[in-house]
Design a protein that fits this description.
The structure holds two protein chains of two kinds.
Chain A: H1 3-17, H2 24-37, H3 71-74, E1 86-91, E2 94-95, E3 109-112, H4 113-118, H5 123-129, H6 140-148, E4 153-157, E5 167-174, E6 180-182, E7 185-190, E8 195-205, E9 210-220, E10 225-233, E11 238-248, E12 253-262, E13 265-274, E14 280-289, E15 294-303, E16 309-318, E17 323-332, E18 340-349, E19 355-364, E20 370-378, H7 382-389, H8 395-411, H9 417-430
Parallel strand pairs in A: 1-5, 4-7, 5-8, 6-9, 7-9, 8-10, 9-11, 10-12, 11-13, 12-14, 13-15, 14-16, 15-17, 16-18, 17-19, 18-20
Antiparallel strand pairs in A: 1-2, 3-4
Helix pairs in contact in A: 2-6, 7-8
Chain B: H1 5-13, E1 26-28, H2 35-44, H3 49-64, E2 87-89, H4 103-111, H5 116-123, E3 126-131, E4 134-138, H6 141-146, E5 150-153, H7 154-160, H8 162-168, H9 179-187, E6 192-196, E7 206-211, E8 222-227, E9 232-240, E10 248-250, E11 253-258, E12 263-271, E13 283-293, E14 299-306, E15 311-314, E16 317-320, E17 326-335, E18 340-343, E19 346-349, E20 355-365, E21 369-378, E22 386-396, E23 401-410, E24 416-425, H10 428-436, H11 441-457, H12 462-476
Classes of the chains: A alpha/beta, B alpha/beta.
């Protein structure tokens, strides 16, 4: 039985178990979508440069089976600054309350997604927002996550509450017993005038293959502020399709940074939907890959209402056989007058076997707007190299120095000091260079 | 802003200046498409067997293909069986001089402002005028022949120069390339053929005017230009079409081949009937244009001013195969009312030290949608490839759309590729500045648009520059948001 068939059978079993769940209808709907669309192939415009169907030719364990992961197993994998952060842990796509830690109870409301959907207090929020990302990702892979939606998490930040600690979300895949396909799902709700900082990361334990198909939806209400960081430094046997969907329902602020340093196949979908006037958002990304890694960053900024501002900068360095894909979309709807939207994608190719495919895309229906995009692909500036070398810096160090400078534009936007120094250190290791 | 439509509507209601029908008896094929029709066309043109086979091969492949759906355009399905694929103006014998040409036809040209006589005397342009499907007159042919330049209709080329046609026809756009080029290969009725021998610099701009004339006749033109080593040619193509209610399909194919050190400059002013203000009628312009820089240091440059057609689907491309070859694309696309344009270019860098430059200016007004779609591809062996792309959009009014879909694929580390795009409207300050100096808003808008498009207009040969500027003004005058 192939993986897709297997998935369908498992889903059927899941539905027969839990008919009464508040998520049943949305799951059922998504299943029909998945059944119709299947896994997207290269003929799907949004998947033109990224082939994920090959991943589905492998046998994957579907994570019904619980993992017996212990805190000690991943102690060494915790991110710096974790002792001062709320740690939310998903294992094989299922939220694990045992492994998760809240530094200060009451700072956040945490509920299993299913429970929240059935609760009086949050049912409305869930109904209005859960699955909003499906309107933007019309493909089978997003539908698959929604169809599964098992062991998901609901996070709520109270109105006018600034969280005292950042939230670290770990997606751990335990492949010690075989290949695992995991599908974490979460919905984060920032109440009016609240503030939240989120760091998401992906870890694979064991030497088998992992495939994570993750969706996180973040709802940002009026006057709320969101800082979101995604750090991807998983092993070469780990693949991800990771969707981050930010919905700004009131005038609000969103700041996102996506850092991708390692992995087999990584696909990031970042959607920013600005549904209210005067929203502001920033999208930063850095990808630094070698080997046979494949990174695909799809970003979408949807300007629905007027007077919104967005700024996007994605930078990449690709070496050896790595492939980088960038697809940045900016939609400006007819009502979204006075939109300012900027986008820039810059790439450096270090080898003739590396590839960059980039597609910055503008779709504009309003006339009073200022939108621009630019992208460049090139190699290291030979004059800058010469300048450094003529001052006695070795070729290798000069190269690393220039790469560091190139990355700095993105790195300086990481506002959490622990995460900033952690990423700096990873990049120095990657560039085999010690500035000190 | 909504009730400010009036000024736009004024423009919209302006009659299509070139809408008139010439009454010439046409020699037509029955409606529909099948192998017999293709045999009919081929026989009608007295083509050799190999040409018929070539057409049939294209037709059989076309049957297996699906109409492309990816472009950002919307139209009702085309009934390919409801089209007349061949229509030739009736002529008693081949004309030797301009005087022998049907006076009715010549009046048509005069209305279009391209009197053959005048052109012959004053402008020094050799015109291969095409009405519907058959070449009517070819002037300056003798003068060109002295230099060894062949400039004739495609059907004549098939008869007189089969070895050249066999060698190059379909070599740049294979019959199987895409849906519309396959259709064209099967049913093309005529077109222009141009061959510049080694080392010859063509002394005049070569020009062809296409014109759709008989009702319900799809125009399937085929153009092939071959520039031998060290030669140079500048080719002009211009179009105007009469007013019609039914949509007309235009699926042309243009192929350019440039050998070592050769240069081809291809300029187009396209002003097909765009349909009325509700989007009824108008030409469907589904064109495949592609050039190949086969030799070292060769250069192909496309310049286009697109103001007409209900729908434009067109990507003049350059395959940069020879080392040090250069590809250029300059475009101004204007859409108004319900017009839709999905146009752009492809630059495929294969040879070393190849360079390409793309400058695209889109102007949308009314309810129109204007898309730029481009591909820049740098292959693994294209060391030191260089590309610069710029695509700017200008929006006039809040009901139109501007879209940019640039695809950039790079597989070589020494390549430098840059792309930039902006979208904006005409600045209030700019208008205010002009108004303050006594320039009324309409003139100011025309001024600003001309400035916006100048980079491209500068690339046009003199003969076209005037017409193109007029066209811009006609298409957009009054569209002040």
């Amino acid at each position: 039985m192939n993986t897709v068939e297997n998935i369908k059978e498992q889903l059927n079993r899941l539905y027969s178990d839990k008919k009464e769940s508040g998520l049943h209808a949305i799951r059922q709907n998504a299943f029909l979508q998945f059944d119709k669309l299947g896994i997207p192939g290269v003929r799907h415009e949004e998947w033109k440069y990224t082939r994920i169907n090959a991943l589905f030719n492998k046998e994957f364990r579907f994570p019904y089976t619980e993992s017996n992961l212990l805190r000690n197993d991943w102690q060494s994998l915790r991110l710096p600054g974790a002792d001062d952060a709320h740690e939310l842990v998903f294992v094989n796509g299922i939220f694990s309350p045992e492994l998760s830690v809240l530094r200060r109870p009451g700072d956040l409301v945490l509920l299993p997604l299913e429970e929240a959907a059935n609760s009086e207090q949050y049912a409305k929020t869930i109904a209005a927002n859960l699955g909003h990302s499906s309107r933007y990702a019309k493909d089978g892979i997003n539908a698959l996550n929604t169809a599964w939606m098992y062991g998901g998490l609901f996070v709520h930040v109270q109105e006018k509450h600034q969280t005292a600690h950042p939230v670290y979300i770990y997606h751990i895949t335990d492949t010690r017993k075989g290949n695992v396909l995991s599908q974490p799902r979460s919905l984060v709700h920032l109440g009016r005038a609240s503030g939240l900082k989120v760091v998401e990361t992906f870890l694979t334990i064991g030497s088998q293959e992992s495939f994570t198909n993750q969706v996180i939806e973040l709802i940002v209400e009026e006057d709320a502020q969101l800082e979101y960081y995604k750090i991807q430094n998983d092993g070469l046997h780990a693949s991800q399709v990771s969707t981050t969907h930010v919905r700004q329902t009131g005038k609000s602020f969103a700041h996102t940074v996506t850092i991708s340093l390692n992995g087999n196949l990584v696909r990031n979908n970042l959607n920013i939907v600005m549904e209210a006037p005067h929203c502001e958002s920033h999208l930063y990304g850095l990808y630094l890959l070698k080997g046979h890694s494949h990174i695909d960053n799809h970003t979408l900024v949807d300007n629905v209402q007027p007077h919104c501002f967005s700024n996007e900068l994605y930078k990449g360095v690709l070496d050896e056989h790595a492939t980088g894909v960038f697809n940045g979309k900016i939609f400006v709807r007819q009502d979204a007058q006075k939109t300012n939207a900027y986008q820039s994608n810059k790439n450096i190719l270090l080898s003739d076997t590396a590839t960059v495919n980039t597609k910055p895309q503008l779709e504009i229906f309003a006339d009073d707007v200022k939108c621009s995009h630019g992208c460049t692909i090139g190699s290291i500036d030979t004059e800058a190299m010469f300048y450094l070398k003529s001052r006695g810096i070795t070729e290798k160090n000069a190269r690393s120095l220039l790469m560091h400078a190139f990355a700095e534009d993105v790195l300086e936007n990481i506002k959490l000091p622990f995460i900033r120094s952690y990423v700096d250190q990873l990049i120095s290791e990657r560039l085999e260079f010690d500035l000190l | 802003m909504n009730d400010g439509l009036t000024t736009i509507e004024k423009t919209v209601l302006r009659d299509y200046k070139y809408g008139f029908v010439t009454n010439i008896e046409a020699d037509e094929a029955p409606r529909g498409l099948n192998e017999d029709i293709i045999r009919f066309i081929s026989a009608k043109k007295g083509e050799p067997e190999w040409m018929l086979e070539w057409r049939l091969k294209a037709y059989r492949h076309w049957l297996k293909m699906e109409e492309p759906k990816w472009a950002n355009i919307h139209y009702d399905p085309i009934d390919y069986q409801d089209i007349i694929y061949y229509s030739a103006p009736k002529q008693k014998k081949a004309p030797k001089s301009l005087d022998e040409i049907d006076p009715e036809l010549r009046r048509t040209f005069e209305k279009l402002g391209i009197s053959l006589e005048e052109q012959k005397r004053l402008t020094g342009v050799a015109v291969d005028a095409v009405i519907d499907s058959v070449s009517i007159a070819t002037t300056f042919k003798d003068q060109l022949a002295e230099l060894g330049i062949i400039f004739c209709s495609m059907s004549e080329a098939i008869r007189e120069h089969p070895e050249l046609v066999k060698k190059y026809l379909g070599s740049v756009v294979p019959v199987t390339d895409n849906y519309f080029s396959a259709l064209n290969s099967a049913v093309f009725s005529d077109g222009s053929f141009c061959y510049i021998p080694e080392g010859v610099r063509c002394p005049m701009e070569l020009s062809t005017y296409f014109r759709i004339n008989a009702e319900n006749t799809g125009q399937f033109e085929r153009t092939l230009i071959v520039a031998e080593k060290g030669s140079y040619v500048s080719y002009l193509e211009g179009c105007t079409a009469p007013m019609r209610d039914e949509n007309q399909l235009h699926a042309a194919v243009v192929e350019l081949v440039a050998l070592d050190h050769a240069e081809i400059k291809y300029s187009t002013v396209q002003n097909w009937y765009p349909g009325d203000k509700d989007g009824v009628g108008g030409i469907y312009n589904f064109v495949t244009k592609r050039g190949i820089c086969l030799g070292e240091h060769s250069k192909i440059s496309w310049t286009q001013v697109e103001t007409g057609s209900a729908i434009t689907w067109k990507y003049p491309s350059v395959i940069l195969k020879g080392d040090h070859s250069v590809g250029e694309f300059y475009s101004v696309a204007v859409t108004n009312n319900r017009q839709q344009a999905d146009t752009g270019t492809k630059m495929m860098h294969i040879g070393k030290n190849t360079r390409s430059r793309i400058v695209s200016k889109g102007i949308s007004a009314g309810y129109s949608n204007n898309s730029y779609r481009g591909l820049v591809q740098v292959n693994k062996n294209a060391t030191n490839a260089r590309n610069f792309s710029q695509c700017d959009s200008l929006l006039l009014g809040d009901k139109c759309g501007a879209h940019t879909f640039p695809y950039i694929e790079v597989r070589n580390k020494s390549a430098i590729v840059e792309h930039e795009a902006t979208t904006s409207k005409i600045g209030e300050e700019q208008l205010f500045y002009c108004n303050q100096r006594g320039i009324d808003t309409e003139t100011a808008v025309a001024l600003i648009i001309n400035g916006f498009a100048k980079e491209v207009m500068n690339q046009l040969p003199m003969e076209f520059a005037v017409e193109a500027q007029k066209l811009l003004a006609i298409s957009l005058e009054g569209s002040v948001g």
